């Protein structure tokens, strides 16, 4: 399956019409598609405190703790002294590589 078609399929299957997640995928490749889709909506030139990150994630899913942790673990964001910043895309774990 072509990468864009795969990505579109995952987004269609795991998000509702309102853009919220129906569930967090358990398969890593699918989870990374979702995380990348979400983090792309953050402003890479801005820093965020933990409350702002939580509020951002809550637009998509209520389990902001898990998703925030996944953002950090998978290299999408950097956390230092409870301040979050979006990493360069080169640092992101890529679903395309799985």
UniProtKB/TrEMBL annotation:
Source domain of life: Bacteria
Organism: Fictibacillus aquaticus
Record-annotated DUF2087 domain positions: 20-85
Pfam family name, one: DUF2087
Descriptive protein name: Transcriptional regulator
